[in-house]
Amino acid sequence: MMLERATNPLDQLEIIDTLERFGVAYHYEDQTGTKLKSIYDNIIDKQRLKQEPHLYATALQFRLLRKHGYNVPQEVFCSFMDLEGNFKASPCHDVKGLVYLYEASYLSLPGEAILEEAQKFSSKNLKAYLKKESNSSTSGDDAKNYHLNMARHALELPLHWRMQKLEARWFIDVYQNSPDMKPILLELAKLDFNIVQAVHQQDLKRASRRILSQVGALITVIDDIYDVYSTLDEVELFTEAVARWDIIEMDKLPDYMKICFLALYNSINKIAFDSLKEEELHITPYLKKAWADLCKSYLLEAEWYHSGYKPSLHEYLDNAWVSISAPLLLVYAYFAVPNQITKEASECILDYPNIVKWSSLITRLADDLGTSKHEQKRGDNPKSIECYMHESGASEAAAREHIHYLISEAWKKINEYQIGNTAVFSQTFIRMAMNLARMSQCMYQHGDGFGAQNLETKNRVISLLVEPVSLTSKD
Question: Which domains does the chain have, with CATH numbers?
Answer without folding.
Answer: 2-198 (1.50.10.130), 204-466 (1.10.600.10)
